[in-house]
Amino acid sequence: MDVQVLKRNANKHKKLFENKVLINPYNYKVNNVGYYLVIYKKGDKLKGYSVISEKEYSEADAILAFEQLVGFTALVNNFFELEQAKMKLSPDSFSNISIVLKKYLATNNNDTLSKGVEVLNTLESNLKDLQYQIKRYSQHYDDKILVSNNIDLKEIRKLMEVLSQLNRIQYLQGSILLDTHESLIEVYKEMKKQNLIKELSKYDQTVIKELTTDIKDVEKGVNSLKVEAEIVDLPVEEQIEILIGEFEKAIKEKLPRYKQDLRYPKP
After folding, report:
1. How confident is the model over 179-231, as pLDDT tens digits?
2. Which of 48, 69, 105, 110 is in Cβ range 3.0-4.6 Å of 37 for a Cys bridge?
């Protein structure tokens, strides 16, 4: 990856007042020529794209590469947004709250708190699974894509598989929160009644309280995952294949819009 050559080629298509010229750190090869996507911005606003290479190339091949590069870029941006949001959360909080409840239940019968332990254990398990998927792909991106500076159809499918898993798990987690919201409110009330809240750290107190407050954002998120809801009872492998198909369909539908912003080569 000859950065200086790529920068020079990218700047050929930059317009006045655009202050960001971003060259993606990976290429897509067509007929053994590597093509890079360039993104032009004014502030944070996207203004256009171009496709460049380190050597002479075919404009027709560059447009074919653009279709794969712009799709992968949209997907990987989605992944990193999820990573930023979900890796802030700590599954240990669910475990910490559950430990306090189990300690109390060891010498007391309480159906409300017993139900709370079940729900918290499920939430912890789902969050761990979600973060595992994120960590694994993030490591793959760093070790493979940023080292080889290359993507192909196999890499694009791999990313779709990961995002499908993440959406599947997010749907499960959100559904559990919606279905058990009233139960969690009762758990919180019972913990206060039995003076168990004070046994939690300040952070974990905040977590259990937030689980019982406004659920509108969770509801909105679950409602946006319509396909995930329709296929939730299918085997996981079948769910993933269906969701990959949805990603492929979405990218295909957006391509005409992406191509409107392609400066060079012109479609």
Report:
1. 999 999 999 999 999 999 999 999 999 999 999 987 888 999 999 999 999 99
2. 69
